Amino acid sequence: xxxxxxxxxxxxxxxxxxxxxxxxxLGVLLVGVFVNVFFYDLLIYAGAIVIFLSLIWWxxxxxxxxxxxxxxxxxxxxxxxxxxxxxxxxxGAVRRLSSRLSSGIRNSFRRNGGxxxxxxxxxxxxxxxxxxxxxxxxxxxxxxxxxPQEDTPHTAIESSVAREVEMPHTTTETSPRQxxxxxx
Length: 184
Prior knowledge:
By secondary structure, the protein is mostly helical. It has 4 helices and 2 strands.
């Protein structure tokens, strides 16, 4: 026997949290509007955010109080009616076909190397039937150091300690920009 819920329903805690957030948010918002403080804008925004967060608790309270009859849940969660005696008729055929299709697609991903959470790497077998070590793919990467091609020599900068530090000449490329101005 299900308990009878009155008044606020099943989620009383969510209801009172929503009310508390609304009261606190409204209080902070009104303090920001009517009290002469230098951080009034912070209070206004904070109050609005707290009121917005109260919507979460209102949604929890509302969705926790939705009642769905058991007859409507049978189709959605796969519960079978006792008088039908299992899968029969068109709905049973559609369920069996859907199950076969989804398992076939799932198995084809496993065979073809697609995404699968239970897939394990298989080691190739040699002609003698022994498991050969998996071969790692090798990728050749060419790397080199590039030096700037310069037409001007390096400039020397003297410091107050009488050492020379050579600074390489650097250039930046810029492209000419064209501006079209129409005067009417």
